[in-house]
Amino acid sequence: MLDAAKKLLVPSKRSDVPPFIVMDVMAAAAQRESQGARVIHMEVGQPAAPAPATAIKAAQAALARGRIGYTETLGIPSLRARVARHYQENYDLALDPGRVVVTTGSSGGFILAFLSLFEPGDRVALANPGYPPYRHILSALGCEPVLIETSEETRWAMSSKALIATHQRTPLKGVVVASPANPTGTMMDPDALARLIAVAEAEGIRVISDEIYHGLDYALAAETAANVSDHAVVINSFSKYFCMTGWRVGWMVVPESLVRTIERLQGNLAISVPTLAQVAAEAAFDGRDEMEAVKHGYEESRRILTEGLPKAGLDKFLPVDGAFYLYADISKFSDDSLDFAKRMLNEASVAATPGIDFDPVDGRHFLRFCYAGSAAEMHEAVERIGLWLKR
Ligand SMILES: Cc1ncc(COP(=O)(O)O)c(C=O)c1O
Asked: Model pTM?
């Protein structure tokens, strides 16, 4: 091939982001199922339940009306108002709907937040372990993700002390916090969150708070960063508590000064968020009873795992505070979580995600279990893992 033609095939360096290893686990699980195995899926972080009936009915009615056009770039006004009301109802916060931006899942929110807050080369702190797309989106945008290690001492959350120590070595421009967090399922207590935000903002570090797992808190009540600071950027989604992963709709609460910037960005990048998903999302707020019932199911699954896994042999895991994740230490069995996950899938037909997806430093010692499945599945998973580890 001519050199000139070869050049036409080369993708940009910044697009060279790693894949999600969990997708490889899903593919391997699907292959085992095609061979007749009955796999218990604990690898993917999504609810097993459908969207609330109120959401589905609203979407069906919108479809029946026929025309699905663009919406306002910042989102359907009644949905933005409904999101603002959610803050009043859940956090006792009077929020101006004008600060709410509807996004394509929280994933779309990260792109808008990072683009509107950071320049290429800016350093942005992330807790390690953490949700991989934070670092991959930042890298693709030319920013530098800076991993801050967490430990038992800080309840596996980023401490304000560690943030400032990192900033003093080389200045940071931003920090992403998440509580409840993925993959750990741990939460920051509201005081620690407020301290971190105060310390960061005093140094001019922009705070982005990923609140996608709010609503799924069992150990303590989650506090929104919007209640702590008007300068924080809050990102949330209908994917988890509202059981609407595939609808691809979320929202942000942004400082007033950023609204027009984000409107211009989203207008150019996407025009607007899918209309049908927005209509369904607004109606999802009326499906609270259904969502609370699903949450009680997670609480039961959490109980089964926290009681059952130690008996099965996995007796070390992080505090199981929220979301639907249990992050288990497998170091007494293996120091290669990818190999351990593969063997557990092939020999016990239980799929979980290796920690290396979330933690390049110590993830080889951990597995993430998602407990969004049924109680019967959780019982069976515990039994299968116990038999497998004791063979
Ligand atoms: C911590 C965290 N943030 C964001 C997302 C992205 O979710 P979505 O784009 O569906 O809102 C996920 C998905 O698993 C997640 O775990």
From this structure: 0.95
Mutation probe of ligand 1 site: the residue of 26, 104, 106 with most atoms within 8 A of C-beta: 106
Q: Is 239 in the pocket of ligand 1 (CB under 6 A)?
A: yes
Listed residue (126, 91, 88, 325) closest to 223, CA to CA: 91
Ligand 1, atom nearest to 130 Cα: 1
Mean pLDDT of 28-40: 92
Q: What is the DSSP annotation of 166-196?
A: HHHHS--SEEEEESS-TTT-----HHHHHHH
Atom of ligand 1 nearest to the CA of 250: 11
> What pLDDT digit, counting tens, does each position of 353-376 carry?
999 999 988 999 999 999 999 999
Q: Is any atom of ligand 1 closer than 6 Å to the C-beta of 237?
A: yes
Token representation of residue 347: 């020999």
What whole-number distance in Å separates Cα of residue 371 and Cα of residue 377? 9
Q: Is 357 in the pocket of ligand 1 (CB under 6 A)?
A: no
Residue in 175, 243, 191 with CA at minimum distance from that of residue 212: 243
Tens of pLDDT along 258-317?
Answer: 999 999 999 999 999 999 999 999 999 999 999 999 999 999 999 999 999 999 999 999
Q: How many CB atoms lie within 10 A of CB 22?
A: 22
Give the three-class secondary structure for 126: strand
389 Cα–ligand 1 center, Å: 31
Which helix (DSSP H) or strand (DSSP E) does residue 325 occupy?
Answer: strand 325-329
Please work out whether the CB of residue 107 comes within 6 Å of at least one atom of ligand 1. yes
